[in-house]
Amino acid sequence: MGPSSYTTHTANATEPTTHAFNTLNKHTFWRGIKLGLPIFLGYVPVGLAFGILAHTQGFSLIEALVCSATALAGAGQFIALATLLAGGDALTTIIATGVVNLRYVLFGATLSPYVRTLKMRFLPWIGYTLTDESFAINVADLRAQRASAGSMTGVGFIAWIGWVSGTALGVVCAQWIGDPSTWGVDFAMPAMFAALFVTLAENKEHVLTGLCAGALVIGLALLSHFGIAIDSNWFIVIGALGGATIAMIVFPHTEESEQDLSAGEELLVASTHAREGDSE
To answer: How do residues 23-38 score in pLDDT, each as one tens digit?
Structure first.
């Protein structure tokens, strides 16, 4: 799929006038909602668990909702609760959650070459709703050159709704639900990641890279049996970096990576031409 799929041309077919990548309408937004539906289904039970834990820590409904609506940090929010429970102060909590969320720097750097041509008004929301799952969905869509501002906005919106509504449900129902682990809620996030992996893995290189990252994380967990304890919050960061490094060494510059790079370059060129056409 070439850059023409992202542009429409004038009557004489000389200049692109509209770039579909910067399009936000009901169709593209709803497409993003459908893409992000698995994230919604995964976030509701995990948000419910957070809501229950927040309630046990004395958070009111409003306080828990504000926390989830403004942070959308997933694991970071659980770490914040655990730190506060252990008697940590505000600075300690900020540092702990910052370390857990370092992986978003990697996500942002990966997305940057693709979204640099988006209009500025779209970037704050896409960046704000960037999570592990929305990153996976959007990157796959960008590589296929089907993504748009509307679809990425929709993915972020449905993910945000799932997390916030799950939190609200957890706080409201905490007195009846009790310990969420007895309902298997703690397995919702791993199950969602597994489903995303199965869906997005396109070839043996992807599968082997994912298996290597998983094996690395299991190895890190097993180190505790040898007296080497590593905080589990580092597992995602180390697993991601380790898996990516192994992939670079074992599968250096494959034909598919060249095609992905070419597709990204086509998208950037098409967007640049379209923006120039819009400004004239």
So the answer is: 888 999 999 999 999 8
Strand 7-9 to 16-19 pairing: antiparallel
Tell me: the pLDDT tens digits for 152-180? 999 999 999 999 999 999 999 887 876 76
Structure tokens at 269: 């060129």
Longest dimension (CA), the chain: 72
Nearest to 168 by CA among 269, 44, 78, 82: 44
d(CA 222, CA 242): 16
DSSP labels for the chain?
--GGGGEEE-TTS-SEEEEGGG--SHHHHHHHHHHTHHHHHHHHHHHHHHHHHHHHTT--HHHHHHHHHHH--THHHHHHHHHHHTT--HHHHHHHHHHHTTHHHHHHHHHHHHHTTS-GGGHHHHHHT--HHHHHHHHHHHHTT---HHHHHHHHHHHHHHHHHHHHHHHHHHHHH--GGGGTGGGHHHHHHHHHHHHH--SHHHHHHHHHHHHHHHHHHHGGGGT----GGGHHHHHHHHHHHHHHHHSTT-HHHHHHHHHHHHHHHHHHHHHHHHH-
Distance of CA 24 to the CA centre of its chain: 20
Nearest CA-CA partner of 37 in 136, 157, 124, 141: 157
- Can you give 9-64 as a three-state secondary structure string? ECCCCCCEEEEHHHCCCHHHHHHHHHHCHHHHHHHHHHHHHHHHHHHHCCCCHHHH
Amino acid at 280: E
Q: How many CA atoms lie within 13 A of 158 on its CB side?
A: 22
